[in-house]
């Protein structure tokens, strides 16, 4: 029955792996399932440094969870200090390459010093445990320094991806209630400086932000407001090298990361200290099979959860050399990444299917002109990987030698939940395979009842896990309704999935109104809200349109207030508008104008029909509740006119 290709791990890989065969994995899984508290409790003791031991492993009062209560720890301490009295002190912690070609190798010792100094800078600005800071930075080592300095003091950070516009930044600063914004003049992208400080200036015009700390990166002109704005290097010059890590409660809020929900308003996902630390550290071993000599490269930006967990916190806590690259994958040529792999001897590469497809399309000559022999493990995250891209990644990049870990997780889950263990789990291209020990997923129907193997249903997680979100900042009711009340007795992921006869999970995409563009989760409502803020737009409906490279692309249907307006150039204007309101990554690939949008009698926009229009250019199925059938046929006929 098994039509899919199956790739068992090679004997050579398995021999040296942390988890070396399926039996060992099943054994770990069984132990975790039978006695989760003992399982997690032992790991928390062996994997993390504690200032004070915890007294209980798990307090679970759905939907509220506490892990390792009574314990005191600090994630920055786990990422830095604990490595210092070991041979890792001199090891490169962050290996960095700027887009213009500048390079730095920052050792654990040096990173400890930089973080301590910057923590002292924050202290001198009056920041202490419980305060909140926004980080809006390019991909430079100082982004990690800022995060770790916050974690060292117990300042809760929220990193905002540098691609977000000033409008989106403003909403996040307000919701977080941040007193401080840490930023840079800009960063390099495709040979040009991208301004960040000017976006901060715009965002905080009407906000009460006490301090803006600005790193000099591009040398571009910036306006500095006296008293509020400070150069990073000026403040740092007066800071001391010693700043002990604050012993923090296990449940101390570590960071908030905003992600798209099903409404127009992004949700501030809150993660806390110890459980997140344990989960990210462990998955570096289980999933990435980290070894001392690895050069590990996760290509995500620190503004996304993948950057938090697998560029900064996980790798550093596990003592890895983590590579950071500032710029675009195709600059100056389509082989920039392969050149980085070759020159820095990267052994583990973790990236998104979109990036793989985009590079695949450029042809094999780009990777083939580089020596990729240092690679031993490849990873994929953010969206389902289609088998063709999987095969190319495996063959052309991994030379058939490297296992691929297709890792399923979410901003909310904190770290990887479903993934092959590369020495143990036979891979099937397109499947995230099996859950990690301690993770109990299921595919269920609306009532929480498991659907038969092979059938599609909702992916839920049936037990709490250490890295899980604790709440939505400022909105605990939404936390409960969104994640814990949809499906009885389980965490609702928002994804559809199917489990095959081997128990493998196949993720089929979102079931809510989120769409996945280049591995970035976007809410259709968020883009719609942005569009209707435009003075000429009456109504907007956004759906995902299948795209060969980015998985899905944003397609917007718009009705105008003044129907006589010539809308020929309005498409471009509205795309630019969304860039301004959210950021370039949310820009619609296509804007279509309509006289009306198809609605049910109760007035709800029928997105399903619009999805069918962009997917198949025709409409099938039940349209009997449609308000106006003519609307649909006009929209279907119009396809591509405005592209
Ligand atoms: C999707 C990114 C298929 C999924 C870490 C999930 C995936 C959403 C995979 C979370 C995968 C993530 N296979 N789909 N390996 N990984 N997804 O919060 O729909 O940006 O719910 O976290 O991405 O996106 P987020």
What order do the helices and strands come in, and which of them pair?
Blueprint: H1 11-16, H2 22-34, H3 36-47, E1 56-61, E2 64-69, E3 72-73, H4 75-84, E4 92-97, E5 103-107, H5 108-124, E6 132-136, H6 141-153, E7 156-159, H7 166-176, E8 180-184, E9 186-189, E10 192-195, H8 197-204, E11 211-215, E12 229-231, H9 232-237, E13 248-249, E14 253-259, E15 267-272, H10 274-286, E16 295-298, H11 305-317, E17 321-325, H12 336-344, E18 348-351, H13 353-361, H14 365-368, E19 377-381, H15 387-397, E20 404-407, E21 441-444, E22 456-461, E23 471-472, H16 476-483, E24 491-499, E25 505-510, E26 514-517, E27 520-523, H17 524-532, E28 537-547, E29 551-560, H18 570-581, E30 590-593, H19 607-616, H20 629-637
Parallel strand pairs: 4-17, 6-7, 6-8, 8-11, 11-12, 16-17, 16-18, 18-19, 19-20, 29-30
Antiparallel strand pairs: 1-2, 3-13, 4-5, 9-10, 14-15, 15-23, 21-22, 22-24, 24-25, 26-27, 28-29
Helix pairs in contact: 2-3, 4-5, 4-6, 4-11, 5-6, 7-8, 10-11, 13-15
The chain binds 5'-O-[(S)-ethoxy(hydroxy)phosphoryl]adenosine.
């Amino acid at each position: 029955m098994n039509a899919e290709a199956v790739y068992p791990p090679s004997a050579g890989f398995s021999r040296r792996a942390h988890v070396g065969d399926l039996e060992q994995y099943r054994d770990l899984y069984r132990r975790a399932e039978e006695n989760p508290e003992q399982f997690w409790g032992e790991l928390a003791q062996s994997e993390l440094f504690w200032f004070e031991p915890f007294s209980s492993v798990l307090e679970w009062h759905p939907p509220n969870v506490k892990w390792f209560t009574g314990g005191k720890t600090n994630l920055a301490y786990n990422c830095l200090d604990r490595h210092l009295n070991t041979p890792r002190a001199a090891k490169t912690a962050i290996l960095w390459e700027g887009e213009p070609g500048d390079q730095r190798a920052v050792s654990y010792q040096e990173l400890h010093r930089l973080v301590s100094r910057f923590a002292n800078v924050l202290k001198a600005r009056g920041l202490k445990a419980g305060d909140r800071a926004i980080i809006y930075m390019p991909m430079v080592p100082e982004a990690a320094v800022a995060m770790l300095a916050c974690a060292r003091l117990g300042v809760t950070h929220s990193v905002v991806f540098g691609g977000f516009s000033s409008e989106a930044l403003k909403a996040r600063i307000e919701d977080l209630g941040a007193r401080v914004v840490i930023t840079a003049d800009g960063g390099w992208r495709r040979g040009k400086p991208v301004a960040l400080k000017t976006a901060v200036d715009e965002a905080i015009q009407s906000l009460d932000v006490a301090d803006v700390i600005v790193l000099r990166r591009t040398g571009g002109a910036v306006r500095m407001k006296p008293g509020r704005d400070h150069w990073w290097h000026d403040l740092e010059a007066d800071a001391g090298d010693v700043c002990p890590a604050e012993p923090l409660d296990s449940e101390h809020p570590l960071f908030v990361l905003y992600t798209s929900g099903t409404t127009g308003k992004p949700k501030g996902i809150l993660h806390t200290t110890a459980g997140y630390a344990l989960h990210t550290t462990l998955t570096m071993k289980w999933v990435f099979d980290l070894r001392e000599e690895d050069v590990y490269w996760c290509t995500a930006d620190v503004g996304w959860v993948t950057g938090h967990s697998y560029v900064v916190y996980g790798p550093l806590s596990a003592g890895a050399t983590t590579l950071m690259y500032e710029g675009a994958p195709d600059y100056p040529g389509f082989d920039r990444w392969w050149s980085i792999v070759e020159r820095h001897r990267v052994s583990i590469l973790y990236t998104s299917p979109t990036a793989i497809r985009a590079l695949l399309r450029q042809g094999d000559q780009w990777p083939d002109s580089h020596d990729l022999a240092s690679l031993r493990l490849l990873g994929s995250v953010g969206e389902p990987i289609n088998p063709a891209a999987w095969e190319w990644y495996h063959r052309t990049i991994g030379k058939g030698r490297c296992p691929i870990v297709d890792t399923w997780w979410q901003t909310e889950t904190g770290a990887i939940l479903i993934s092959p263990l590369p020495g143990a789990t036979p891979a099937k291209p397109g499947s995230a395979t099996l859950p990690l020990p301690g993770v109990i997923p299921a595919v269920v129907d609306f009532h929480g009842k498991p659907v038969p193997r092979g059938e599609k249903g909702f992916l839920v997680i049936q037990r709490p896990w250490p890295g899980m979100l604790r709440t939505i900042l400022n909105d605990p009711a939404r936390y409960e309704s969104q994640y814990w009340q949809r499906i009885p007795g389980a965490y609702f992921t928002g994804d559809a999935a199917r489990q095959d006869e081997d128990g493998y999970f196949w993720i089929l995409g979102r079931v809510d109104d989120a769409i996945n563009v280049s591995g970035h989760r976007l809410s259709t409502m968020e883009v719609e809200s942005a569009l209707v803020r435009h003075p000429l737009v009456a109504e907007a409906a956004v759906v995902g349109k299948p795209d060969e490279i980015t998985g899905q692309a944003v397609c917007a249907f718009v009705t105008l207030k003044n129907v006589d307006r010539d809308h020929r150039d309005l498409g471009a204007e509205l795309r630019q508008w969304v860039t301004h309101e959210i950021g370039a990554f949310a820009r619609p690939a296509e804007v279509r104008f309509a006289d009306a949008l198809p609605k049910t009698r109760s007035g709800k926009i029928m997105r399903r029909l619009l999805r069918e229009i962009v997917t198949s250019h025709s409409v099938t199925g039940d349209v009997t509740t449609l308000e106006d059938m003519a609307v649909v046929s006009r929209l279907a006929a119009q396809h591509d006119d405005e592209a």
